[in-house]
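Regression test attached.
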Amino acid sequence: MIRIAIHGGAGTILRETMTPEKEAAYTEAMRQSLEAGYGILYNGGTALDAVEAAVVALEDNHLFNAGRGAVLTHEGHVELDASIVDGRTVDAGAVASVRNIRNPIKAARAVMEQSGHVFLIGEGAGSFAQEIGLYMETQEYFITEDRLKQWKLLRHTARSVTDHAATSMEEKHGTVGAVALDAMGNLAAATSTGGMSNKKYGRVGDSPLIGCGTYANNRTCAISATGYGEYFIRSVCAYDVSAMMEYAGVSLPVAIKRSLDKIAAIGGDGGLIGIDAAGNVVADFNSAGMYRGWSDDDGTLKTLIFEE
Amino acid sequence: MIRIAIHGGAGTILRETMTPEKEAAYTEAMRQSLEAGYGILYNGGTALDAVEAAVVALEDNHLFNAGRGAVLTHEGHVELDASIVDGRTVDAGAVASVRNIRNPIKAARAVMEQSGHVFLIGEGAGSFAQEIGLYMETQEYFITEDRLKQWKLLRHTARSVTDHAATSMEEKHGTVGAVALDAMGNLAAATSTGGMSNKKYGRVGDSPLIGCGTYANNRTCAISATGYGEYFIRSVCAYDVSAMMEYAGVSLPVAIKRSLDKIAAIGGDGGLIGIDAAGNVVADFNSAGMYRGWSDDDGTLKTLIFEE
């Protein structure tokens, strides 16, 4: 049994504002990500390699708020966060507020495997990535025309963008992520984001935080979250799903549902993808839509954007 | 029922290397911290105010690895992390890698109450603290002679200090923290640290991470952790204690014991303090010692350093 699931963010994704061209582009991007991850699993590769490859595909695609095409900070920079967890050992790695690393998810994995630490941030994390030879890019690589336009509209507003009506999904919760189960029975999870548009003061959300945005444990499940980060941190959301499964014997779909209900109860919204040790896949959300996709039992790749 | 507990770090604290003068100084410092927090609770104040005051006292005391007297990074700076959680609402605030904020725990609380966010890091967090009027200090304020000596010994070593035998407790796990229950039945938790001595690459441990180093929820408990941060992150330690209580119906002492056992099983060590909603206090650790103190039922303040 091999399985993979991905997301490209949850939020106010409405049929009314979606053009056929845009829908086709997102669908194609998600398919490429799924194919990258599923191909690795199909060839006997690890869940860790699969989630990394799936997230790299989404980071490299300018449509998503991660890697190239990420939102800009108040100061006009792209600052990226990412994390990865290996469910076999619950080893973990994460980076936050990194500026020039082409693929933050690769940096997160390198932190896990080569740094002796779990969490590196800011310029220090950038130095680490450079020293171990990860691809570095100038800010120009990351900044797309759409994001620059969005930033110019937002930068003179006093408050960060989540206080405003979002004109597009990515302004709210445009995180990407992947979860996978490999043929050896190992789970893994990965999450990557540009965070909140027009963010100030070094704001970091749940995506790089182990147990909040990302968690994996072979005993329970692999989880990647996307949503209004502050609520997901306060809920320790990804680990909460795992804890409900481990300590209360709840199934993955029920644990994810309860976790999202708790987030809604305190005012937050977003979505979660998860895979359990038996290969069950869940993609659930309490926002208007979520870019999401997964492999079926027979290897068919499915993608969805709106509610079913 | 009002209760407070504090810690000043866990690690290789040995009777052999402790002088009577040093022991008296640590005991007095812990007593001052407990008195600051307990006084607030006794006068009808909130658990949140109590844990903040108790941690401020430890940050201001040069003996502990938090605020003044914190360890130096590889580059010779003091970079501080802190977090706070209000068990009434599970509101939370945290800062990481801040350089000039006199009391990082006050910055964490201000993030919670005034920023609209949960986690601010680096220079951005410093700008926020300055804008809202928190006390800022030069690096000289934080750097004590002992720490400078320690740094000069360590800075030319290639690896961070946890790979070496610690010459003093603080080099390993010198975090401070407090948990409290107030007369209104509300819990709160706070943690503050200078992190790892000779740390590089913007390394951040568990202390500023909600659910890892700090957690509080009126339904279960308030927790502050101290230890080898990487293992506490991977264990999502503070929230794990709460989850065992909530989902498995385990008592606070048993949940803390199990959590420390899990950390030991993956190679980590350290300690936890906790208070549950009924006012039971636990201070447990799997290292040689932990600076710790608490108020008894009758308001007596107790402090301990070594194993009982």
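Expected vs. actual: identical. The radius of gyration of chain A is 17 Å.
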